[in-house]
Amino acid sequence: MFDNLTEKLQATFKRMRSQGRLTADDVREGLRDVRFALLEADVNFKVVKEFLSQVEEEAVGQDVLDSLTPAQGVVRIVRDHLTTLMGGQVERIKMASNPPTVIYLVGLQGSGKTTTTAKLAKMLKQQGRQPLMVAADIYRPAAVDQLQALGQQIDVPVVFSPGLSPVQLAQEGWQKSRQLAKDVVLVDTAGRLHVDETLMTELVEMHEALPAHETLLVVDAMTGQDAVRVASAFKEKLPLTGVVLTKLDGDARGGAALSIRQVTGLPIKLVGSGEKVDALEPFQPDRMASRILGMGDVLTLIEKAEQSLDKDEIEERAKRIGTKDFNFEDFQAMLGQVKKLGPLSKVMEMLPGMGALNKYKDQVDDKGVDRVEAIINSMTIQERRKPDIIDGSRRLRIAKGSGTTVQEVNRLLKQFNDMRKLMKQMKAGKKRGMPKLPLK
Ligand code: GDP
Asked: Ligand 1, closest atom to CA 109?
């Protein structure tokens, strides 16, 4: 996500840091590079202009220039202003005091409405709500099937009846919510390739028949400033309350995330970061700003770690690192814990400095991790505890059992031994540096 922008910004700040003391002109020159980076990321040019004039005013201040680490000061100012630019605070989905809460999802075709409807239903369900979904995108027959399949997957009822118009379906959704005692009605609406009058009229009629508590515009983050134009057009006709930015896991450049709030005044409430039903998160401007600057999303990582990791297990295993007892059982257990945080490539993205270390991302290959796990799973308990007993015939058996090759088994054993040696040396303080982990 935003890799290109992050790389450019990091290069600029690195240059500034290497200068040590900075003059006002140095800062201005650095900010010029920031301007190019933002424009290249397809951020609206008026937004860029205003943003930079605010940043510059603060960043050339004497207290920044005179500080011990002026470049850090500039980064902090940029981060704070980026946060404000994206809305500053987390904006929650508002729930009606008198249920059911009615939430419409609107947007162009392919933006991710249907997927987001199901993701949001799942999120609300996890928060203890009782959602119901309405399949009102009747013009794209696959959309109804898609929503019904997703509904089954997450165990949320879907309202649809052939022959009913979208307006009637919305009303039917409300009726059903009363009958089934559901407290949220999520309406997946029809999209078109472009903003068009017929579509808008239909959406307006639906809102008249069943007024909304939230009307969320779903936009594809990869479309950059087009997303901003779409948002402005929808906002003219509909009572939009927020935006869902989808496909942030793809190669979105950043333009939409950084411009939409400022240009349209609409808060980004949620972001989609994958095709699966659980890939939806509240939009957190401060974390996003840190991530854009390559400062990593350590907070998200820590939160995930707190939720999913077994601390006792990790502590127990960690004690053995660097001792002769560290074996494949420990490694397997730790790998299992790390995997709970999500695909390794994603975890790495959240770590500070990783934007610049993209080349290492290729070193962790999630399939590679699966193969390593398969190899370890094919070992007997004895072999895991005492890897030294794994001779030629055992290697062949392990390779066959795990669907890998003897070469791969050999490589893992060699890397594991190297890692063990290095860890021992590191523990004894003889050598610094990270051993290559046997993950690929
Ligand atoms: P709709 O026409 O607006 O209802 O769009 P869909 O929900 O059918 O989504 C269009 C495509 O985008 C589908 O292939 C989805 O799987 C995909 N998609 C939706 N949201 C995301 C996301 O956050 N990340 C990724 N990678 N794909 C997404």
From this structure: 2
Element (H, E) at 243: strand 242-246
Task: List, as one string, the DSSP characters of 204-240.
Answer: HHHHHHS--SEEEEEEEGGGTHHHHHHHHHHHHHS--
Q: Which helix (H) or strand (E) holds 131?
A: strand 131-135
- What whole-number distance in Å separates Cα of residue 413 and Cα of residue 389? 11
Question: What is the three-class DSSP state of 250?
Answer: coil
Look at residues 253, 231, 287 and name the one whose alpha carbon lies nearest to residue 87: 287
Q: What are the DSSP E strand ranges found in 136-179?
A: 158-159
Architecture of domain 101-294: 3-Layer(aba) Sandwich (3.40)
CA 113 – ligand 1 centroid, Å: 7
Has 189 been labeled as part of a binding site?
yes
Closest approach atom of ligand 1 to CA 280: 23
Question: In the chain, what are the domain boundaries?
Answer: 3-85, 101-294, 301-427
Contact present, 309 and 299 (Cβ < 8 Å)? no
Q: How many angstroms separate the alpha carbon of residue 110 from the centre of ligand 1?
A: 6
215-224, 238-247, 424-433: the lowest-pLDDT one: 424-433
Query: Which residues contact ligand 1 via a Cβ below 6 A?
Result: 107, 109-115, 143, 191, 246-247, 249-250, 272-275, 279
**27 — phi, psi (to 5°)?**
-65, -45
pLDDT in tens, 122-131: 999 999 999 9
Looking at domain 301-427, does it have CATH number 1.10.260.30? yes
- Please tell me if the domain spanning 3-85 has the same topology as the one spanning 301-427: no
pLDDT grade, residue 356 (50/70/90)? very low
Lowest mean pLDDT segment, chosen from 123-127, 309-313, 390-394 = 309-313
* Pocket-testing residue among 1, 106, 108, 115, ligand 1, by greatest number of atoms within 8 A of Cβ: 115
Q: 123, 140, 158, 246: which to mutate for ligand 1, most atoms within 8 A of CB?
A: 246
Q: Which atom of ligand 1 is nearest to the CA of 119?
A: 20
> What's the complex ipTM?
0.98
Q: Residue holding tokens 């017929």?
A: 198
Domain 3-85 sits in CATH 1.20.120.140: yes
The answer for residues whose C-beta is within 8 angstroms of residue 98's C-beta and 6 or more apart is none
